[in-house]
Amino acid sequence: MTSLLPFISKTYQAPVWRMEIDEISQTLFLEIRDHVNKQVSFSALSLQHGGVYFEGFTTPERWLTGIEAAYDGVLLLHNYQSATGPIHKGITAIEAVSGKELWSNFTLAFDHLSANGPVVYNAQLQPRKLLLIDVKTGATLRGYEPVIDQPQDNKIVSPQLLPAAEVNNLYLPLSVHANAVHYIGYNSFRIVSLHTLLQEHLEQHLFVYNEEGTLLYHDLLHNAIQKMQPEAFVLHNNQLIYLKNRSGLIVLKL
Fold it and tell me: Model-level pTM greater than 0.85?
């Protein structure tokens, strides 16, 4: 019998393409890409109380946009230079709680996120000069200083990919396809994701056990799939975050 219940459970109308966590405000941002209608939308949820700040948020650019980063309650979006290339251009800042645009700048390009805020550069100037900006206003604070502007620690733990033989059999209730499982041991919890073959198709399952091998939670993540899926879950602080059938978001508190 399972003894864990989802803290957040949401299903979207299209696949979740990317997730980003803002450590300061404890906000989870989602990028949802509807390939049929060529429409990208965004959602923001609180990892503290589980509420939705906004969902179905779209920009004037329907398709060539996406999540860049998140910091201090602000989501940073980018556009693409072309439909066929990966190069980003411009930055638009969206406030998490209200979903309102705070600022935009189409000459700046994002470089990386530091513990002190976003580091950017003017894409029109060479050589490239890195700048630290205020995420709330887009104003330049000073030049980037690598010694003090250390990379932001997102505290996300990804599972290990292990041979099945390295995982206690108590946590493997099904025959493991390809002898590979994703695994995290966290405090008294043992989290396992595996693929199993059923009638010539693969299924992907997620299990959470205690140390004694008692099943606390189980979910079928994918069924009737043709190939093995990438890692199914991540751990952030005491929360297990995963996607189900690509369009369902589940968060468990451990």
Answer: yes
